[in-house]
Amino acid sequence: MARAGTRPTSRDVAQAAGVSQAAVSLVLGDKWRGRVSETTAERVREAARELGYRPNLAARNLRLGRTRTVLLVVPALTTEFFGGVYTGAARVAARHGFGVVLYPSPEVVGPARDPFASAQAALDGVIASSMAAAALTAVRGDQLPLVMLD
């Protein structure tokens, strides 16, 4: 069982359900059909609920090599238009299992600099508005999908 004050792990779920960690991974990753019985799958889900288990997203992202996160670069959020752009982007991204990181690029300062030291490692795409080509290369290199606004 999870130690007091620590977050429960898949190992804790496996122990509580009386199954292997592999079975827990299959069930919680929704890849169990044909590999684990319905009864076992339910036992794993129940153990996870009782323990308050939440997957470690950092570990999952490291294993999968992606974060399901996109960077939205817009001018400073001083207009209602760009507030709506962010709200719409976040809504659509959430429907597809993505998160949105907002990076306001002040218009008077010039092109945005790389908002992350290693954007390519931390992001799966870029949505950008009013940026110079050189700044886009700095942010996305040539590896990240890009959508341009306006």
Multimeric state: single chain
CATH uppermost class of the largest domain = Alpha Beta
**Helix percentage:** 40-55%
Given as residue ranges, the uncertain stretches (5+ residues, pLDDT < 50) are none
In order across it, which strands form the biggest sheet? 2-1-3-4
| SS-derived structural category | alpha/beta
Total domains: 2
**If you average the pLDDT, what whole number results?**
78
**CATH fold group of the largest domain:** Rossmann fold
Account of the protein in words:
With 150 residues, the chain is an alpha/beta fold. The chain folds into 2 domains: 10-55, 434 Repressor (Amino-terminal Domain); 63-149, Response regulator (Rossmann fold), CATH 3.40.50.2300. The protein is built from 7 helices and 4 strands; from the N terminus they run H-H-H-H-E-H-E-H-E-H-E. The chain has a 4-stranded parallel beta sheet, sandwiched between helices. The longest helix is centred in the middle third of the chain and has 16 residues, at 80-95. The radius of gyration is 20 Å and the shape is elongated. The model has no long low-confidence stretch (mean pLDDT 78).
